[in-house]
Structures are given as structure tokens and as C-alpha cells.
Amino acid sequence: MNVLFLCTGNSCRSLMGEAIFNHLAPQGWHAISAGSKPLGRLNPGAVALLEEKGISTAAYYSKSWNDLPLTPDIVISVCGNAANETCPAYLGQALRSHWGVDDPAHAEGSEAEIKAAFETAYAILRHRIEQFLALPLAELQNDPVRLKAEMDRIGVSMPQPESET
Predict the structure, then answer these.
(1) Which CATH class is domain 2-154?
(2) What is the widest separation between alpha-carbon atoms in the chain?
């Protein structure tokens, strides 16, 4: 099963989704990412954070949704712009869901505040991907209506803040 993480620039959130998903996914599931207007480069803050988390970004690059090496079965948009754009016809009957995440690439403030924005985006994406992978995927592959409902539910879920003890 192929999952596409889609965003406008394909440099930050969609890259993070692709990398986290591939790091956690079971055999037979694979993520790719793309953008409608790719920047052509990966965001250094996203790359640094993923590498800090032990997730390699060596094989990843910013690409257009017109240059995908395969046709996705599931498309997850992670930014508001991608959610409002018309997907190309070649995506056919791909199941679509929107998992909006604020773009840490636009964060302003101190170095610590900017890093916190990247950490927040990472935590949200990881939480949602973990919830997705915890679903009975073999069962849901044959029930697209239920899978879509579960994915949409996950798309609004947020990680619980860590309690300080």
C-alpha cells in the first residue's frame, strides 16, 4: 500500500510525514511525498530534526506530484493549500484525507521558539501516523468507507502534552 503525503512546497511537513511513516511502517506499506509547487530543496530544520530523532533523510528530495514514481493508494494532505487544490486526474480513486499541520518553516522568534515549532509539527505527525498504523489495516484495506472515516478522525487528533512529574 502506497501513501502520499502532499503539501504545496514538499520541503517540510510532507517530507516529515514521508520519513516518519517509512520509519514506522510495517512491511508492504510505503510512503512518498510530493508538492503541487515543490521548492526543489528540503527544509534544513526538518532534516535536522528528523536526523536528531534517528530518522534518515538520505533518500528524500523535494518533488512535484507530476513526477511520482508510483500511483498512491492513499493521499494525505498536510497543509491547507494542498487540501484546497485539485488533485491531478492520475491519482484516480486514491483515498484522500486532510491532516493539517501548521508549517514550522514559517515560524518566527528565537531559535528555541522555531525549534519548538518543528518539534510540535513532528509530534503531531508522529502521533497521527502511529494512530493510523495501529488501525486494523489488513481489514480496513477492504473497507474504504471505514478507512476514510478513521483517517479523517485521526486528522484532527492531537498528541497529549507530556505531564511533568
Answers:
(1) alpha beta
(2) 51
pLDDT, mean of residues 85-99: 66
Which residue in the block uniquely carries the three cell numbers 508549517? 103
Average pLDDT over residues 105-125: 95
114's CB contacts (< 8 A; 6+ apart) are 45, 104, 107, 108
For 8-38, b/e burial (b = at least 16 CB within 10 A) is bbbbbbbbbbbbbbbeebeeebebbbbbbeb
Every domain of the chain and the residues it spans = 2-154
Single pTM value for the model: 0.90
Decide: 13 and 125 in contact? Cβ < 8 Å. yes
Residue with cell 487528533: 157
Q: Which residues are catalytic?
A: 7, 79, 87
- In which residue are the cell numbers 473497507 written? 143
Phi and psi at residue 68, to the nearest 5°: -70, 140
